[in-house]
Design brief:
The protein has 102 residues and is an alpha+beta fold. Helix content is 30%, strand content 15%.
């Protein structure tokens, strides 16, 4: 049973959508999230993909992928803007930054 209602999206369509949005010159991280959710739902039809789920013990992931039958979490995703140099999320976190820079 498919759980998601988004129209199917191929990887090529995902990249084209990202590019078209990026080329407008005013996009932010959130501008691309609908495309990522649509792609994930296409690739994982038996899982739930939730954008901006409730906070959890380790923080606030941008997405959570849960098993369609059990509801157990399978993956957490942190999305970043195109070109974001801080992929580790160290910006503004001195404690983490000092650990990773040693």
């Amino acid at each position: 049973m498919e759980l998601n209602l988004s129209p199917a999206m191929s990887i090529q369509e995902y990249i084209a959508a990202l590019d078209a949005t990026y080329q407008q010159g005013n996009a932010t991280e959130h501008s691309y999230r609908g495309y990522l959710q649509q792609l994930l739902e296409t690739q994982l039809p038996k899982q739930y993909v939730t954008n901006e789920p409730s906070r959890i013990a380790c923080g606030a992931p941008d997405y959570i992928i849960t098993d369609g039958k059990s509801g157990l979490p399978l993956a957490f995703i942190e999305a970043k803007d195109i070109g974001e140099p801080d992929l580790r999320g160290l910006k503004g976190n001195r404690e983490l930054k000092s650990k990773h820079m040693q």
